[in-house]
Amino acid sequence: MIDNETLRKFFLFGDLSDLEVTNISQIITEEDFPPKSVLFEENEPGGALYLIVEGSVQIIKRLAKNKQKSLSMLKTGEFFGEMSLLDGEPRSASAVTQEGCKCLKISREHFLNFLDQHPRTAFKFFTPIIKVFSKRLRDNNEHFRDLLVWYLKKETTPK
Fold this sequence. Notes:
Layout: H1 4-7, H2 18-25, E1 28-33, E2 38-40, E3 48-54, E4 56-64, E5 67-75, E6 79-80, H3 82-87, E7 94-97, E8 101-107, H4 108-117, H5 119-156
Antiparallel strand pairs: 1-8, 2-7, 3-6, 3-8, 4-5, 4-7
Helix pairs in contact: 4-5
């Protein structure tokens, strides 16, 4: 079982009581990964949220044959895989460690069971995840808008 002190380093646990943190810690596992480990590939079945205890993880999106784009570089204290925890759909991007990395993992299956047993705690845990998810979506919308403006300017520029 992961100790409460480690979990308290993540803001996701900030609104939870000590008992609630202890309860949720029972569904969390710890995993160590060497550098350049592929944690999951885009389009693989989803199924877990990861929290970075040490190290960094690059989130990568495939664009075309042999082309990819780095979406973000996440570091200690951040998390990823929240979409999979929420909807259970295939992964929307790949995740690769950049150095040796220690992560905490919450599987969707365990979290759904936890949700049934502790709905109030699960809601309190989900609230900051939803805020980060919303911010990431807004950032992506801005990026998309910028790309669209660039494309439209390119299309309307005389050649």
